[in-house]
Every structure is written in structure tokens, then in C-alpha cells.
Design goal:
The complex is a heterodimer. By secondary structure, chain A is mainly alpha-helical. Helix content of chain A is 77%, strand content 1%. The longest helix of chain B has 19 residues. The chains are: A mainly alpha, B alpha+beta.
Chain lengths: 198, 105
């Protein structure tokens, strides 16, 4: 036995037992944080939001947002799946499965609401995305995702109040910028393990 | 010390602080890369390997080497069901020790 293990006290007292419980919880949380790093999904989601007004204007027509998000949503989902699958610390299967189900519900919900309520309630699809992001914030225990969910909620409320195309464009740009800024904050403040090591 | 005391439920394989750290780290995830676990736990290759051998022999940790074609070998570590049960049991024993003291204030 080395000197480190020889110096280990047995948990014969409450203080030692409490310290060990804290250490177990800290170790568990550290690995979950590494596995569930959120900067990448927030960044590509933000970029997709920022690009939305320009691309939908280029496509043109009332169905342009549905076409854009019908393409961008699955691309974002696949990119996130690839990102998490390549991480050196991987989420429990249960969390991965729930994530896929939430992502599908969020995407389908936003698309259906976007097509069905585009005229009467333009903020409905954004509200669906806010709800999905809220679920992700709880699942990943992430304040960063919670903030982005809140920004989507505010955006949805603004779009409910004014459903003009101009307002929608401003909302997408603002929500996208907020997502990118929070993604950067998540990248800088969370220890990450993406760098190749020698 | 009597066999009824919660201390008797402590498994020495799990209790050692580095092995406990390894098991706690792996308990939050499906699997972790050897290098990441080594760096996060602040261990050397040799030290982590030595503890992994003990944990694998006890059936608590699974060590799998994967060598994709054209890429470097990656070693994945994961907690086995027996390892999760042992860690849960250890947590229960620690809580029993804390609860065995009626009033700590």
C-alpha cells in the first residue's frame, strides 16, 4: 500500500462519513457535468436562430419558416447526437434516451404549432422550443440551458403580442445572440475535456 | 466493534479514497475515457491502473479497450451493476454511521 492509502482514515466517525458522502456526490456531479456539456448545442441552436430571418427571406413564402426549421431542426439534432456520442465521458443511456424523446417532441411540437397556428399565434412554436429547453435544463441540471429557455419564453411572449414578420425576425436575432453568448459563457466557465491530449 | 455497527458494512475495496473516487466518478455516467478519468482524479497512469485492476477483480468496474481502425486505442471505464450496488451499499453504510449519532448539534 502506498502512503496515500495508509493515511486514509476509516469512516468511524460522523465527520469522516459526511466528508465521504460529499466526495461521492462531487465526483458524480463532476462526471455528469463533463458528459452533459451544453455549449455546443446552445451555439449551433443560436447560429440557426440568427440565420433564420435571412434564410427564410431568401426562401420566401408563408411556408418558408416551416421549410427552414424542418431542415435545420434535424440537422441540429444529428449534430448534437454526434457531439455527445464523441465525448470522452458519456451520458447514461437513460439520459440519452430521454434527450432524444424531448428533442423529437420539441421539434415536432414546434413544427406542428408553426404550421397550424402561424397566422393566429406566431409565438407558439417558440413557446414549444422554450418548453423543450426547460426540460433539457432540468435533465442536464444546467443553468445555462435554463437561461436560453427563458430567452425563448420572452421571445414567444413578444411574438404573441406582435405577430409581424419584422418582430419575428428581431426575436430570432435576439434569441440567437443570447444563445451564442450563453454558449460562450458555458464554454469558458465549464471545465471541458474536448482537447486532444498528448 | 460489533458486527451490527454500520462500520462493519464498509467494503474496504470501495472505501479506499482513490477507488471510491473512481467509482463515484463513473457512477454519474455511462462510461468514461481512461485519460479523462486519470486527469479528473489527479492520478498517474500507473496509479489508476493499479486501482482499476483491484476494482475489476472485484467485479465493480469494466475496462474495455476499443481500437478503431486508423485511430489510437481508447480505453473505456464503466461501473458494472455489481459496482453500482457496492457503491449504493457504501453510501447506505455512511448514512447509517451519520444516523447512528442521535444529535450532532
Amino acid at each position: 500500500m502506498n502512503s496515500a492509502s495508509q493515511s486514509i482514515p476509516t469512516p468511524a466517525n460522523v465527520t469522516e462519513a459526511a466528508a465521504q458522502l460529499d466526495a461521492i456526490e462531487a465526483g458524480r456531479s463532476a462526471s455528469m457535468r463533463l458528459a452533459g456539456a451544453v455549449w455546443f448545442p446552445l451555439l449551433i441552436g443560436g447560429i440557426a436562430n440568427i440565420a433564420a430571418p435571412s434564410v427564410t427571406a431568401l426562401i420566401g413564402g408563408a411556408a418558408a419558416p416551416a421549410w427552414y426549421w424542418g431542415f435545420a431542426g434535424p440537422v441540429i439534432g444529428l449534430a448534437c447526437a454526434g457531439y455527445y456520442a464523441s465525448r470522452p465521458v458519456q451520458l447514461p443511456h437513460r439520459v440519452s434516451l430521454i434527450s432524444v424523446l424531448v428533442a423529437i417532441a420539441m421539434g415536432v411540437g414546434a413544427l406542428v404549432l408553426g404550421i397550424g397556428l402561424a397566422e393566429s399565434a406566431g409565438g407558439a412554436p417558440v413557446l414549444a422550443v422554450a418548453a423543450g429547453l426547460g426540460a433539457f435544463a432540468v435533465l442536464y441540471r444546467s443553468a445555462h440551458v435554463g437561461l436560453v429557455a427563458a430567452s425563448h419564453l420572452v421571445g414567444a411572449l413578444v411574438m404573441f403580442a406582435d405577430s409581424s414578420d419584422r418582430t419575428a425576425a428581431v426575436v430570432f436575432l435576439c434569441v440567437g445572440a443570447v444563445s451564442c453568448a450563453i454558449a460562450l459563457a458555458a464554454l469558458l466557465t465549464t471545465h471541458h475535456v474536448d482537447e486532444p491530449r498528448p | 466493534m460489533t458486527s451490527n455497527h454500520p462500520i462493519s458494512q464498509i467494503d474496504e475495496t470501495v472505501h479506499q479514497r482513490y477507488r471510491l473516487g473512481i467509482m463515484a466518478f463513473l457512477s454519474g455516467v455511462e462510461r468514461a475515457d481512461f485519460r479523462t478519468a486519470r486527469d479528473e482524479l489527479g492520478l498517474t497512469d500507473g496509479n489508476l491502473n493499479r486501482h482499476l485492476v483491484l476494482l475489476a477483480d472485484a467485479g465493480f468496474v469494466d475496462v474495455t479497450k476499443v481500437a478503431p481502425e486508423g485511430k489510437r486505442t481508447r480505453t473505456w471505464l464503466s461501473l458494472t451493476p455489481a459496482g453500482r450496488a457496492a457503491l449504493d451499499e457504501h453510501v447506505r453504510a455512511l448514512r447509517s454511521i451519520i444516523d447512528s449519532v442521535p444529535d450532532r448539534t
